[in-house]
Amino acid sequence: CGGRLKFYVSVPRLVRTKGRQTSRVPMRRLRCSGCGAIHRELGGLFFPYKQYEAEVIFGVLEGLITCETLGFEDYLGCGSRTEIRQQAVAAAFSLLEKMLTEEKIL
Question: pLDDT tens string for the chain (106 positions)?
Fold first, then answer.
């Protein structure tokens, strides 16, 4: 609706990073003053609806991270569900590009 976004609450988000590490990162939730809808502030670390940090996803897309890359054996593109994972990553990347071009990321 284009209303002003105001800080509402902070919630933890699980993020999978290099070396099989996971961490909980605080994510701000914002409420629209016009319609009351809740939005999450993504920043540069996150992709919408993905647990892997953006650096890992870009590494897979660019071919820098493969099943043979030490520390990433169980990450995207590895195992029996490779095609499904690659499609999911491509869809997330496409969504992020669309959001960036429409300037909807806070």
Answer: 788 999 999 988 888 877 768 888 888 999 999 899 998 887 777 777 777 788 877 887 777 877 777 666 555 556 555 565 666 777 777 777 777 776 554 4
Rounded to whole angstroms, the Cα distance separating 1 from 35 reads 7
Could you please report the per-residue DSSP string of the chain? --PPEEEEEEEEEEEE-GGG-EEEEEEEEEEETTT--EEE--TTT--TT--B-HHHHHHHHTTSS-TTSTT-TTSTT-STTHHHHHHHHHHHHHHHHHHHHTT---
Q: How far is 30 from 38, CA to CA, in rounded Å? A: 6
**What's the N-to-C CA distance of the chain in angstroms?**
15
